[in-house]
Amino acid sequence: MDVLTLSRLQFAATVIFHFLFVPLTIGLSVLVAWWETRYVRTGDETYLRMTKFWGKLFLINFGLGVVTGITMEFQFGMNWAEFSKYVGDVFGAPLAIEATAAFFLESTFIGLWALGWNKVSKRAHALAIWLVAFSVNLSALWIILANGWMQNPVGYVLRNGRAEMTDFAALVFNGTGWQIFIHTVLSGFVLAAFFVMGISAFHLLRKNELQVFNASLKTAAAFGLAAALLLVVTGDMRGVDVAKTQPAKFAAMESHWETQTGAPMPLLVWPDQKKAKNVVEGLRIPNGLSLLAFHKAGAEVKGLKDFPPDERPPVLLTFLSFRIMVGLGGLLVILALGAWLLARKGRIAAKPLLLKALLFAIPLPYIAIQLGWIVAEVGRQPWLVYGVFKTADGVSKSISSGQVLLSLLGFTLVYGLLAAVDIFLLRKFARKGPEEAAR
Amino acid sequence: MSLQIVWFVLWGILWAAYFVLDGFDLGAGMLYGFLGRNAAEKAAIRRSIGPVWDGNEVWLLTAGGATFAAFPAAYASLFSFLYSALLLILFGLIFRGAALEFRAKSAGAAWARTWDLVFGAASFLPALLFGVAFGNLFRGLPIDASGYHGTLLGLLNPYGILTGVLFAAMFGVHGALWVSLKTAGELGARAQRMAGELWSYLLILAAGFLAASYFSTQLAANYLKSPFWAAIPAGAVAALFATRFFISRKRAFAAFLSSGATILLVTATGLVGLFPNLIPSRMDPAFSLTIFNSSSSPYTLKIMTVVALVFVPIVIAYQIWVYRVFRHKIDAAGGDGENY
Fold first, then answer.
1. Which of A78, A117, A132, A139 best tests the B interface by mutation, with the highest count of B CBs <10 A?
2. CA of A166 to nearest chain B CA: how many angstroms apart?
3. Residue range B285-295, pLDDT digits in tens
4. Is 0.90 topped by the overall pTM?
5. Structural domain boundaries of chain B?
């Protein structure tokens, strides 16, 4: 395999791995901060025990998110030197700002929070976790503004053989970037809610620490349901924005080949990229696609055939990822609704079936989130910066395929090992319950 | 002064700050297996860096991010040229973070022994390799019209290795002094003795580094042109001797600050000699990457200057505050907060 393919595989592997840890950090930081605030306000020890239990799991998860993030920043230069040279004037700034304005804050105050229980006042300690929660989300904003610029490049000119920034405000207020940011943060909230609900369900099924886990599940269900519903709204907005800014991606998401007004949406589809058509297509919803893309029944939706074959993204992967993500999203809304309805009446501990479903639902948001990013990143191909710079042009010239093969194997091995240890520890502490975490 | 020069200075400060800050926790990690004689002492060393290592490491991300934003062509070239060396640094940092996070979270002698070994080795590797990388920058890389001609083994030339060992020794002294500052009793005394012993080796390495830099690199040229800058290497030497002085007086904090100043000024010595190059070519200066031919546009540099001037002081302020919260010596009996 060549340097390009190997570098793409490596970027995909390392970013997927990195993003196994980040969404839980995003959501759980907010929940832990909320519970610690309740403790400070009410003095109720149950909230303290919740804070410590979920905080422990938060910390086990947090460390790997940090160290795997360093890999991401280094890789732009290591494997994608030509990309970095071409867009660094625009793209480097949000990354540097992320480190300076957000990452310092979370890394400094997580240390204070983890080891400072008896060193600062209760209020200051709770403030530390709020600062962590705030800066974790701020980190996500700057990173995603960098990604948002790759999806919808704004505020730049091509000059001196590269892209140069001309309007920082345009980059910061890029609507596409903000939409992806909000959609991502909400998905982190949903993931954390299901993480908390699933582990709480595990203990409720064993009649263990009923008070702690009933309370945890109740908060998480409300938080998760609200986030999941908003996720549907922002997902719809994303669809409209993608149809406008990246029509090729939208067409691939829906496996839509021919440009059409009043385009229907077939429910049963199987694409064939070589033949440039769907080999299976059935159960059409009239005007469905036009409504989805533009909220107008008669609107024209561009088809993949409007783009030369080498400018079409991989259709099957984009299409399937999108469909499955949407399906999982719907399922999660239903589960969160059920959990919320029963938990608020205090009846959920008596519903073993739902509890088991919640336990087994823990991986679902993880899968949905990865699929969402596959839609965003694979669907943008063959471009790195949509319409401006192609992926094939971005790879480093001074590295050999042997080097990248070794590093890819190295990452696979190292990350695999770390994932195994991390899951082992999360499982261990999740099963043990609050007593162990308080020590 | 052009913004490119401002950013060269800022770039240097960020890297130097990273070396000073992560230097002591990498150093403490390197010496961890030799300093900590039992479980309680080992835990004390881990807990001495527990609240701060994460924040220290962000200086690396900021230094890397600043290189990207201010000098994208240099960032792209440097990181792709030194691909394999950076990969090893990354693996070191990843394993070190994992060791710190995981070590105390499960029982069992084999678990503890494994992560102890990982922690020590994974602290040493980045310390050594950052030195090797900067040594090769000072020396220049083999770049010509057709690109880069170096290899991983090529980086391990005598001067590169010397700089690597120098960095490891500086971090070692700095780390030992941190442990002596933060722990009481026998461990603290032992760490102080170790700092003194390591210092003798560091002195020899530093003398060798200055001589080798004079004879086998172009670093001296800037100093010969404007001798005023010689104050920086002179300051580095003074800080090095001040470290020894304060070690023998058993003034741990002053000795720690002096070793920090040594790292800062040694880094500055190299960077002043490098100016205006970021990546000098050993083959033909026409292919050197300088702050002028590899920088971002004036517009981006202006934005980044504002960001740096607003946020870096804020970062420094809250990091100092957190250091102050944890200023007391580690209680070897332990027990407060998250166990490390």
1. A78
2. 7
3. 899 999 999 99
4. yes
5. 3-195+213-227+270-325
